[in-house]
Every structure is written in C-alpha cells, then in structure tokens.
Write a structure and sequence with these properties.
This protein is an alpha/beta fold. It is built from 7 helices and 9 strands. The strands form 2 sheets. A 7-stranded mixed beta sheet has the order 3-2-4-1-5-8-9. Strands 6-7 form a two-stranded antiparallel sheet.
Amino acid sequence: MEIVNVRIDERMIHGQVAAFWTNSLNATRILVIDDQAASDDIQKMALRMACPSTVKLSILSAEKAVQRLQKEAYPNERLFVVMRGVATVKKVMDLGYVFPVINVGNISNKLGSVRVVGTTSVTPEEAQLFREIAEKGIRITAQMVPSDELKEFMPLLERAF
C-alpha cells in the first residue's frame, strides 16, 4: 500500500480530483474519509458517480479508515486519500494515524473565514487546527491542480491571520 497523496478538499471527488489528480498520481484507489458521507447513502452514490471507472473507491468514517490504514488493508494499491476538511485530518490523527504530508485544496469562503490562497479560505477555528497539525511535524502544502506550483501552506496561513 502506497499513499500517493492526502488532500483536503471540501468537494471531495469532483472534476479536479477525478480527472487531474487521480491521473497524475496514477492512483488505483480513492479513499474518502468523511463521517457524514460514510453514513449517507445519497452522498455515497454521488461520490461513486464522480469517481473514475478505472479507480476503486472506499468511503469510510474516520474511525474505520484508521483501522484499515493501520492494517495496510489495501496491498499493492496506490491510495489517494481525500477528506472534506481539516477537522477530519485532526480526528484521524487523534485516532492514531498520522499522514506525513497534507495537501490543501478547495475550502470555500464562509462566514468568518479568511482567504489564505486561491480558493482556500479558513475560519480562525480551522486555522488553529492547522497549527496543531503542523506542530506535530506534518508538512502542509497548497496546490489546486498538479500543474500548479506547490506552496508551503503554513506561511500563507500565518500571513492571512
């Protein structure tokens, strides 16, 4: 099992993830980690429809995902992990699985959020979660699509706040 990318993108599987990221990473499986989607048949159906037919898909709660990742349950797979938000990354970490690098994609603007880079806006609460994750030695990057320049996220976050 090889984790080829871990991405925060509130849209989870959409055009950029399905077309650009999955192909450029040569991913064989997308692992969506999201408690809400894992328990909602309509969201699961939408994610299945958005997933490229050449790629396997798993939609798991944070707890179940940690269990599967710790067991390395996807042998010979190139795993592309997608999570809706930073709170899920923190939850996975608290449950005992740490990703060495997190790529931040789309987090839409909402009440109280500040634009950090591109289409990534975070609230003060989300900014604090990013800080807690970075303090554990996890590298956080920002890159909308594979052809974009890879940027270090934390300096951009600190500049915004």
